[in-house]
Amino acid sequence: MAFAPRNRSARNDYDSPWKEALEQYFEPALALLMPELHAIIDWSHPPQFLDKEFQAVSHSLRRGRRQADKLAKVRTVFERPAWLLVHAEAQGGGAGPALAGLALRMQIYCYRIVDRHHIDHEPKRKPRPSGRGQARQDQCGAEGAPALWRRSSGRQAGVLHIAKGSLGFASFAILTNSCGGPPQLSHKLEFLGAAESLGSAEFQSGGMQFRCPVIHLGQWWPRWAELEARARSNPFAVIVMAQLQAHAHHRDGAGRLAAKIGLMKLLYRHEYGRDDIISLYRLVDWILILPPALEPAFEQALEAIEKEHNVAYVTSIERRAEKRGMELGKLMTLQQLMILKFGPLPSWAKARLEAADEAALSDWTDRILVAGSLEDILGAADQG
């Protein structure tokens, strides 16, 4: 399994590792973070991720690079499909404007998904004389219409009980940089209406109240020992641990290094298989970014860990190939620039290029614009 080279600046995007983690470890993510919702999904049917469908309903909403969304179609234990929206965001908790804005976005996502994809398994009916408004009210759960959503009486407010014979929809949010706050996102649209219910949206005389469960990831800090124990069989616990450490050591490179080494030791101690170790290494590496000066120390520690366990998963040819692939790309670019500027390269210049490391190639590339000769870039030619 080869590693895809990543640009370091791109790795600062919050979006990518969480999207990948949620898709790759969707079932263990729900088992850890939303156990009641996890319990009503039939995991013998793999989730179907609906990225194009989500793009269609979110195109006009302002979204940042520190947000990750996954829309999935799952099958429930009631033998009916359901749509599930998971939103992860690097945002603090509390009841400020940012949290209110997130609640509004989640409400808009919910409505657009239901409206665009007609989440209803009932046969089409002839329009009623009362017009379009009545037809929409029927679809959304007024008296006599099919029950699309039903509230669970469990602890997690907003987790939906999907009744047999219906197609359900559920959503929840993860705030990765929040240590506490309300257990639900809440947003109210003010208008006059009847006292009806729309699953997790309630019509009242003063408007429509939307509620959505929210997970404050920082609340796992006091349960760190539990996370370590859960990580024995739940790989998503490792992702949560990495994210907590990333926020805790935001500007502390040495702290990140120690945390990253600790997580890698945990993977080998819990005897994860090769594929999971490689996948989790990539995600942890993405979340816990180290300053370049500390990368060699991490690589040395990783080599020692793998030597202790008599394996070579990450430090095998795949990891070396990633690094060498980046070096070869720089070498070919620099060589082409030199040929264009100075003509065919002598053998000593080719040999020096091929023996160079990544740092030297970068330095020589910076010099080429002002250099008057190959010697100005590479140094004096070999004698003899």
3D structure, described in words:
The protein has helices spanning 15-24, 26-33, 35-39, 51-58, 97-117, 132-139, 224-230, 236-248, 253-269, 274-287, 295-308, 317-342, 347-355, 358-367, 374-378, and strands at 48-49, 67-75, 81-89, 150-151, 160-161, 168-175, 184-190, 197-198, 201-204, 207-216. It is an alpha+beta fold and 384 residues long. It has three domains: 10-122 and 137-219, no CATH class; 226-318, no CATH class; 336-378, no CATH class. The strands form two sheets. Strands 1, 2, 3, 6, 7, 8, 9 and 10 form an eight-stranded mixed β-sheet that branches. Helix 1 runs antiparallel to helix 10 (274-287), helix 4 (51-58) crosses helix 5 and helix 9 (253-269) runs parallel beside helix 11 (295-308). The chain is elongated.
CA radius of gyration: 27 Å
Quick one: biggest sheet? 8 strands, mixed
Q: What's the total number of strands? A: 10
Structural class: alpha+beta
Estimate the global geometry from the Cα principal axes.
Answer: elongated
- Compressed to H and E, one letter per element, the order equals HHHEHEEHHEEEEEEEHHHHHHHHH
What share of residues are in beta strands?
A: 5-15%
Number of helices in the DSSP assignment = 15
Organism: Pollutimonas bauzanensis
Region (Disordered): 120-145
Protein name: Transposase, YhgA-like
